[in-house]
User: What shape does this take?
Amino acid sequence: MKSWIEFWNSEHSIYVNERHKALHAEAVARDIARHIPGPDAVVLDHGCGEALYAENVASRCGRLILCEAAPNICVALAERLGSHRNVDVVEPMGVEQMPDGTLDLVVVNSVLQYLSRDMLEALLSTWRVKLKPQGRLVIADVIPPNVSPIRDATALLTFAARGGFLTAAFAGLVRTALSDYGKIRKQLGFSMYAEPEFVALLARHGLAAERVHPNFGHNQARKTFAAKRA
Ligand SMILES: C[S@@+](CC[C@H](N)C(=O)[O-])C[C@H]1O[C@@H](n2cnc3c(N)ncnc32)[C@H](O)[C@@H]1O
Assistant: This one.
């Protein structure tokens, strides 16, 4: 496996069981909802994964556009949500092809660690032009350079203990460490950003960003940033 997209496109066990998936989806839905500006908002969820929260989020906005780069996930999303009243499923090229100035909110949760700097910079330019003048870009679960895999594991175990899937989480962590995920993480690493560096990077792309609380999901060692067109 040579890339993170290949990993996400494969069968994997990052979510240790159905309970983990359900609680993750519930948390992400709650966190996205906090940023939806109103019931008519057009929302892009870039790097949405399985998006088990999609129906929930779609019920709180005018239109939800799900963008996913892993082809197998994209096909499954289209099968599940293709006929949904206000959900569209697109590949990354579909975002490029959208008319400029049409989005109220772009959310990107737990994706940046898998993007090279060049890919991120290209996406920042795309997201900026697709936002309405008052639209907001919310990038969540950004990993600061000092956050170790051990801190990530501890955050998962704490979440699992509260959610009643601690044993499965222990087993899942071992499985993940020994899996392709562990190998790719060693080979490619994660892209990580310190807060001032990240805010400055967005500023260079015409986006005025600030850190907002809380972070999406269960790991508060990672950070969420909200930005608007400068
Ligand atoms: C950790 S998952 C996060 C999924 C979802 N955002 C969530 O919070 O549950 C990362 C997802 O980002 C997708 N992804 C990675 N790079 C991408 C890109 N350039 N464009 C679209 N999706 C991408 C991966 O395929 C994967 O499904």
